[in-house]
């Protein structure tokens, strides 16, 4: 039977499945004819599963619910927002019937919003991840349509020279200056600095650590605290019993804020984000001769490819080979 709920504009359906379970579900449509067709299809599907032992016909929304229940991603809120957008295109679509046409509709709709290829790729990658889970782990489907990926232009790494960094630090308010200086010396991400707690620091051994559940790569990071870093940490004594970096005794929720933006303008530094302090730290390390494998461990990257982004900043080891062309041109 179809019915309307006071809290919903859509038609809902209700039926008793062969196993005695009462099923209530929104049809996601205000069209009564389409709602009835969906209700009849779902009821017939339940009968086929029970009597003919067919594989259940799950819809996209079923997969989304299961995905969110199992997900431990740090970007879960971004996934939820993307799922809400995708619902208009896949919501009640039977999972096994999602095809290339559906994927193309999603891609076209995103491109019509004027977003970048990178943004489109994030949406389609999420669809692909859910479908792969449904096939490989849940056994809900047997086929996944091909999902194209757009080539993304590689961005130039933004980093500061020591002189530029000094100008920026001079313009920052004291609490942000300490955090920015700490970031430049350790390479830690913004959230790892703003949420750093005293119980993550061993002053005797002069080390700190980021727990696996706090790290983007999902593995712990150990941070050696040499003299310059220890000086910054000692300057924060007594400000807060739990957090290392605070403002007026309270935790700093975001370092990349209005005060940061204004300081950048005063220092005449453009196109620079807080995260670029990490790029600056890595760039300085490479230019100073730190081996890439050691930098990978210091920065907590799980993929060596991420560290290779900085390799071009230290080409000195190629010098003895670069001159080989001289012999060839002289002959």
Automatic annotation (TrEMBL):
Domain Tyr recombinase: 155-323
Name of one Pfam family that matches: Phage_integrase
Record carries keyword Oxidoreductase: no
Domain of life from the UniProt record: Bacteria
The Core-binding (CB) domain, residue ranges: 58-135
Coiled coil stretches, renumbered: none
UniProt keyword annotation of Ion transport present: no
Example GO molecular function: DNA binding
Keywords, comma-separated and alphabetical: DNA integration, DNA recombination, DNA-binding
Gene3D superfamilies named in the record: 1.10.150.130, Intergrase catalytic core
Gene Ontology BP, a term: DNA integration
UniProt-listed InterPro entries: CB, DNA_brk_join_enz, Integrase-like_cat_sf, Integrase_catalytic, Integrase_recombinase_N, Tyrosine_recombinase_XerCD
Family named by the database record: Belongs to the 'phage' integrase family.
Protein known as: Integrase Int
Organism whose genome encodes this protein: Methyloglobulus morosus KoM1
Lineage: Bacteria, Pseudomonadati, Pseudomonadota, Gammaproteobacteria, Methylococcales
């Amino acid at each position: 039977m179809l019915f309307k709920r006071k809290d919903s504009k859509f038609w809902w359906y209700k039926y008793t499945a062969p196993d005695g379970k009462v099923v209530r579900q929104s049809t996601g449509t205000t069209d009564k004819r389409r709602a009835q067709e969906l209700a009849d299809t779902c009821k017939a599907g339940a009968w086929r599963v029970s009597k003919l032992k067919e594989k259940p016909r799950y819809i996209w929304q079923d997969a989304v619910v299961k995905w969110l229940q199992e997900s431990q991603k740090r970007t879960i809120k971004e996934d939820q927002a993307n799922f809400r957008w995708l619902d208009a295109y896949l919501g009640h679509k039977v999972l096994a019937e999602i095809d290339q046409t559906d994927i193309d509709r999603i891609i076209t709709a995103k491109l019509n919003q004027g977003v970048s290829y990178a943004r489109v790729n994030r949406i389609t990658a999420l669809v692909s991840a859910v479908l792969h889970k449904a096939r490989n782990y849940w056994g809900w489907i047997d086929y996944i349509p091909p999902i194209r990926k757009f080539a993304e232009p590689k961005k130039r790494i933004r980093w500061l020279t020591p002189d530029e960094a000094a100008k920026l630090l001079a313009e920052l308010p004291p609490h942000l200056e300490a955090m920015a200086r700490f970031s430049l010396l350790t390479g830690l991400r913004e959230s790892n600095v703003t949420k750093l707690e005293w119980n993550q620091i061993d002053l005797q051994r002069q080390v700190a650590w980021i727990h696996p559940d706090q790290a983007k790569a999902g593995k712990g990071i150990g941070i050696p605290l040499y003299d310059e870093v220890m000086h910054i940490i000692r300057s924060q004594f007594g400000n807060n019993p739990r957090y290392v970096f605070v403002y007026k005794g309270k935790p700093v929720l975001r370092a990349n804020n209005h005060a940061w933006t204004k300081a950048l303008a005063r220092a005449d530094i453009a196109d620079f984000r807080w995260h670029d302090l990490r790029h600056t730290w890595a760039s300085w390390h490479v230019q100073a001769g730190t081996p890439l494998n050691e930098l990978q461990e210091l920065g907590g990257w799980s993929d060596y490819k991420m560290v290779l982004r900085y390799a071009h900043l230290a080409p000195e080891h190629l010098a003895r080979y670069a001159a080989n062309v001289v012999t060839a041109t002289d002959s």
